[in-house]
Write a structure and sequence with these properties.
Layout: H1 2-13, H2 29-65, H3 78-110, E1 118-125, E2 128-133, E3 142-145, E4 148-151, E5 156-162, E6 167-170, E7 177-180, E8 186-190, E9 196-202, E10 214-220, H4 222-233, H5 242-253, H6 256-259, E11 261-262, E12 267-268, E13 283-284, E14 289-290, H7 293-301, H8 303-306, H9 319-330
Parallel strand pairs: 1-5, 4-10
Antiparallel strand pairs: 1-2, 2-3, 5-8, 6-7, 6-9, 9-10, 11-12, 13-14
The structure holds dinuclear copper ion.
The site of dinuclear copper ion has 9 residues, from loops.
Length: about 325
């Protein structure tokens, strides 16, 4: 019994690499209004379910106790007509309550009256997320990948786009689900209220590594967010050892720089995640692997082994080159 309960809780919490992921523990305004609707639906549907099953049991028991001849119901039996009218009224009232509630929740999700919203564009790719903070003057914009930081209490207006196929952005603790569709801009508002790390996950099957297309969202105090943002605006740290300098040179001259961008290095690729502050992120490969220097080394030497189908190729490097690249990337806090 205890095992079944903990299994159910684990299923509901769906713990990933980082953070919780459940719609039953809302940490933002949008998720809270969806959660309230879920409670209303549960109460209304449970009421009708109990009524129907109760009526059925009552009829069975009554029939067994008093075997009466089959009643000859006429079209104008006032008893049957009254019962039908009561049932129709009850069902109509229940359905009207659910439809109206769902309509008003939908409206509340669609409008945010916040002119101070934080503008972020999230673009989905097979199988990672580009995250662009486009808030304030253009020289204050920056890009990261596979992680979002949000200040608690401020609405984030997230523009959702896709670079290839249809994906879906779902952060169940914070808001509802919305698709990322090639050629379209969808907008999702998130007003986080509680500090913590919440896992979001691609919710539309998009190919082989769909299940490993997650995005941890860190909700922090406005002060902590300011510090994080100021750090993100800085270029990558310059190498401080000979090995790191060698790693940077390898990165710039081998295939890495064709796909990845590092601000402050001669690497301007746009087809793969921006690595400017890679080592400050909680995970690698769209939350598939928790970040550590060892995981980074494994990822670089055999990406196909760690995430089969990933677009990251196995780049042929000598072991000295590989360790140097790991040392350099691990210094990019
Ligand atoms: Cu992207 Cu599923």
């Amino acid at each position: 019994m205890k095992q079944a309960a903990s299994g159910l809780i684990a299923l509901l919490l769906l713990c990933g690499c980082s953070g919780v992921q459940t719609p039953l523990d809302p940490a933002g305004d949008q998720a809270a209004s969806i959660h309230t609707m879920w409670n209303v639906m549960l109460v209304v549907c449970s009421f009708f379910y109990a009524l129907v099953i109760g009526g059925l049991l009552w009829a069975v028991v009554r029939r067994r106790r008093e075997p009466v001849p089959e009643p000859q119901a006429s079209a104008h039996d006032p008893g049957i007509e009254r019962t039908l009218a009561v049932w129709t009224g009850l069902i109509l009232a229940g359905l009207t309550l659910l439809i109206s509630w769902s309509f008003f929740v939908d409206r509340s999700l669609a409008q945010t009256h916040d002119d101070q919203a934080l503008h972020i564009t999230v673009t989905g790719y097979q199988w990672w997320w580009r995250v662009e903070y486009q808030d304030g003057p253009v020289n204050q914009w920056f890009e990261t990948a596979n992680e979002i930081h949000l200040p608690a209490g401020r609405t984030a207006r997230i523009k959702l786009e896709s670079g290839d196929v249809i994906h879906s952005f779902w952060a169940p603790n914070l808001a509802g689900k919305m698709d990322l569709i090639p050629g379209r801009h969808n907008v999702l508002d998130i007003t986080p209220r509680r500090i913590g790390v919440y896992r979001s996950q691609c919710a539309e099957f998009c190919g082989m590594q769909h299940a490993h297309m997650a995005l941890p969202i860190t909700v922090e105090s406005p002060e902590a967010f300011k510090v994080w943002r100021a750090h993100q605006l800085q270029a990558a740290k310059a190498p401080t050892s000979q090995q790191e300098a060698f790693g940077k040179a390898v990165f710039e001259t081998k295939a890495c720089a064709f796909c990845h961008k590092i601000d402050g290095a001669d690497a301007g690729g746009r087809t793969a995640p921006n690595l400017t502050h890679l080592a400050s992120r909680p995970s690698l490969a769209a939350d598939a692997i928790p970040y550590s220097r060892g995981a980074l080394a494994g990822w670089i030497s055999d990406p196909q082994g760690m995430k089969p189908g990933t677009k990251m190729p196995n780049v042929p490097l000598t072991s000295a080159e590989s360790s140097a690249v790991v040392a350099y990337l691990d210094s990019l806090k």
